[in-house]
């Protein structure tokens, strides 16, 4: 605070009043103090600014994708809760690495929100530092981000539900179509879902054949390509575990084009329970997506009302058996 | 302005300075003037506030749905353009009628944006009045809203592309699955796409059989139900024209369950070119959705920079022939 006051050429008391939005500060003085504070990356402690009652009524939501069902559904659930409490949602889409870097660099200067919600994306160490500079509440939804209160599914458990189902049906040669998001490296969902594949094999006493693992970017077309790669093996899998329904639906297309029956020749299981999984009769592991957004919204409200939340919330997933899985051919 | 000044107990000059964000106004005075102006629903003319350079750097985006692909894609395109110009996006989801009414009632009091973009929804007369009170720029995207500059497809033309394709293939008994959005009555897309069905029949000299028209809420499951209804007719259609791909995919499920071949027994065409239409080999009429959001964003930037835009922009659609349409059985 002393540095801020010195830089702005005002007393400590004035600097403090300016930063806490006290009414008896001339606009020009306040601007000078804010500029100095920003320059020095001075952080108003959330407690202090809350005590001073200075709230913007706005929450920033940061998403890596908007048009994908998973992210849009999280956002829908979150927005509904915040709007009900008359909080406005500022939407920030950060796509590739360059985008992210610019966004997080500028973030502290935008000190104009009461909280930040990070939807379905990992937060790297330098980004955590920039977020920290904002001095506002931070919540993560749609993924475990250990540094913040989060709402998520247990990706390892979800993956195990899919894998154990295939193993129970008698499959021993199971392919995995793992998804990588090039713009969001280190996303824990990928790690958990991949680990499930390996642990399920270990528990069943089946060695993993690395040729059965294909990693592709998220999406239907990449899923279709991955399935083609698996069908090109001398001994293709009898079942395929895909990290997401959209990827699984791509695999289904390739199988259909190859004239193979599902599940007669090859079983397919996804994760998500995308609305079209039901329509396409895809077996999947359902996760409550909108609800994760809702819970994250409630977490924001609790934090803003002064409650202390540090833990994450894990919502349960469940296996939904439809017509795309069955026992392997005898 | 005189009323505002009187109510706030200040001179006209002071009231004007306060409303135009002039720096030499004490915060308490400004608050009083703003409160008075809000009470009187005083509208700062956009021209005046633009000349005074007073901008919030924020654009409000109003959407009737977030998690549906069409709306999320529009939003993604729009957000990208606005963010590039360092404008923040305030997201407002208005769902049912009660929601809409509350939202539009409160809107003028939220005079804290430079523009409002209405995504994929009709704007009723009382809502237009409330929007007008805000005195900011308004743009519509993803639908023709004649009162505002808009970006849209020509729904009549899109519907004709689908219908003319079926007629060209030789179909004479064509069903239509029309979609109604109960929360958004009067949506022009529905009107245009329905009119296309009737006009195509008239041009081909084929009388419309009203039993072949089913109207359902948007979605896959309603589409499946609609198809079942059509299959319950003594003489079912040989082809089905659905107002959207997701509805068409519902119809496809019902046909598959009934053991019917697509397109051997029944052809199906949708509208949109949803990413899963490609994966499921669905013939459709493609509309550039993200691009409509992008164009709307550019429209906002032009308006904010003082350009005068009053016309709408119509982006072209195109027929994408895949595997779900073919000639009727001889």
TrEMBL record, chains A, B:
One of its GO terms (molecular function) is transcription cis-regulatory region binding. Residues 1-53 form the HTH lacI-type domain. Keywords: DNA-binding, Transcription, Transcription regulation. The keyword Transmembrane helix does not apply. InterPro entries: HTH_LacI, LacI/GalR-like_sensor, Lambda_DNA-bd_dom_sf, Peripla_BP_I. It holds the Pfam family LacI. This is LacI family DNA-binding transcriptional regulator. It comes from Actinoplanes aureus.
